[in-house]
């Protein structure tokens, strides 16, 4: 039975950006989970992120903290710590909460708990789900998702060069992947390859240490520096038929994974927007210029109000998106519009927020520089702004504008 939404009087006052009280839509039990996550991110994760971001490292200590957080697989029936599975509204709000503190941590978690976990949950048969997912649910094993290639991003559906050739009960994979989060240390990497026999895209769980599987960390990033992205070379990588995800039968199934996880990226972008806005609001109240707090200046208030408007409109869109997911009437174009719109609004808000900091806005010590840089990656991954507009444009006009 679903409990009633929390009365407004019981709402947490720590989230100053919730101007329309969207959190009141969560039932009491789910709100307790959210507040636990908020405390975890603020007290356990936030103190570690600037140093990790500066060093471009994902410290084991941070992984261990997530391992004990109880946040993994909450949205998956039969596998998470909380059963039955939580609503899509809570699942999205949790992604928001992670992004509010750090986009890299939200991405690391999203790759494992979203792309990697959902690929096996959706694409695997019962034996495969039972074999791989329990250890992933406790983060004893870490997952990754290898779709993008060095010469193909959004066009990978038609131009995938990584191949799979069957030899009896074994598949031989050859090719390359790029920008694969968690891949330098992941235990299970879901690799997508085109079957040389029927030209269909299939998915394979490549386990850590498999000969011929060589992930190399991508250096020199200016965004999501904590995330360990890799370029992967696959040279005669032999994978048993038992590790081919049995329900992944073509790119349509890959698109289903992206449809689900893309909404999570939109929620992460909302979190980044909120985190940047809150930093700017606090700074404006504390920073003095010309003998008074800069929060008293009209132009500063204008930037803050525009930021709050972006947050409020984006949040409302995502609340309705979660309802569509819960009702089972959630389509590709719904996910695409949310990612396109919220990511664009995020980019505006982090820029306005950094502007309020003036020169201090380029210093890592003030956090806002990290938000500003990381926003660029969220704006691009899981489908660029332009690709999302093509998906939505096809839906509303009935005409495809894709080239090729």
Automatic annotation (TrEMBL):
Keywords: FAD, Flavoprotein, Oxidoreductase. One of its GO terms (molecular function) is acyl-CoA dehydrogenase activity. Residues 144-237 form the Acyl-CoA oxidase/dehydrogenase middle domain. InterPro entries: ACX4-like (IPR045008), Acyl-CoA_DH_CS (IPR006089), Acyl-CoA_Oxase/DH_mid-dom (IPR006091), Acyl-CoA_Oxase/DH_mid-dom_sf (IPR046373), AcylCo_DH-like_C (IPR036250), AcylCo_DH/oxidase_C (IPR009075), AcylCoA_DH/ox_N (IPR013786), AcylCoA_DH/ox_N_sf (IPR037069). It holds the Pfam family Acyl-CoA_dh_1. Its cofactor is FAD. One of its GO terms (biological process) is fatty acid beta-oxidation. Residues 28-140 form the Acyl-CoA dehydrogenase/oxidase N-terminal domain. Residues 249-396 form the Acyl-CoA dehydrogenase/oxidase C-terminal domain. Belongs to the acyl-CoA dehydrogenase family. PANTHER family: ACYL-COA DEHYDROGENASE, ACYL-COENZYME A OXIDASE. This is Glutaryl-CoA dehydrogenase. It comes from Streptomyces olivochromogenes. The gene is gcdH_1.
């Amino acid at each position: 039975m679903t409990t009633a939404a929390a009365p407004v009087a019981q709402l947490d006052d720590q989230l100053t950006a919730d101007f329309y009280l969207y959190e009141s839509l969560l039932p009491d039990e789910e709100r307790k989970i959210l507040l636990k996550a908020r405390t975890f991110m603020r007290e356990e994760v936030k103190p570690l992120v600037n140093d990790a971001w500066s060093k471009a490292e994902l410290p084991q200590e941070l992984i261990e903290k997530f391992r004990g957080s109880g946040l993994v697989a909450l949205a998956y029936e039969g596998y998470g710590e909380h059963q039955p599975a939580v609503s899509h509204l809570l699942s999205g709000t949790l992604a928001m909460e992670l992004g509010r503190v750090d986009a890299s941590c939200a991405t690391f978690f999203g790759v494992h708990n979203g792309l990697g976990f959902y690929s096996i949950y959706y694409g695997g048969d019962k034996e495969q789900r039972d074999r791989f997912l329990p250890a992933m649910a406790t983060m004893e094993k870490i997952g990754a998702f290898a779709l993008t290639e060095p010469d193909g991003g959004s066009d990978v559906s038609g131009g995938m060069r990584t191949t799979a050739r069957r030899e009896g009960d074994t598949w031989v994979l050859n090719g390359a992947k790029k920008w694969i989060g968690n891949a330098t240390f992941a235990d299970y990497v879901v690799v997508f390859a085109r079957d040389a026999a029927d030209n269909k895209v299939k998915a394979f769980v490549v386990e850590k240490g498999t000969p011929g599987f060589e992930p190399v960390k991508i250096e020199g990033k200016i965004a999501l520096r904590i995330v360990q992205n890799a370029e992967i070379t696959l040279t005669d990588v032999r994978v048993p038929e038992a590790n081919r995800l049995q329900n992944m039968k073509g790119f349509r199934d890959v698109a289903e994974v992206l449809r689900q996880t893309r909404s999570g990226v939109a929620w992460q972008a909302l979190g980044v927007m909120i985190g940047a806005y809150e930093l700017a609001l606090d700074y404006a109240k504390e920073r003095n210029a010309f003998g008074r707090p800069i929060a008293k200046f009209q132009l500063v208030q204008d930037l803050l109000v525009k930021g709050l408007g972006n947050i409020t409109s984006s949040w409302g869109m995502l609340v309705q998106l979660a309802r569509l997911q819960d009702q089972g009437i959630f389509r590709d174009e719904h996910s695409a519009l949310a990612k396109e719109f919220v990511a664009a609004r995020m980019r505006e808000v982090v820029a306005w927020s950094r502007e309020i900091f003036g020169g201090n806005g380029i210093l890592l010590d003030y956090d806002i520089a990290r938000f500003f840089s990381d926003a660029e990656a969220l704006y691009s991954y899981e489908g660029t702004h332009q690709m999302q507009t093509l998906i939505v444009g096809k839906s509303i006009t009935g005409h495809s504008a894709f080239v090729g």
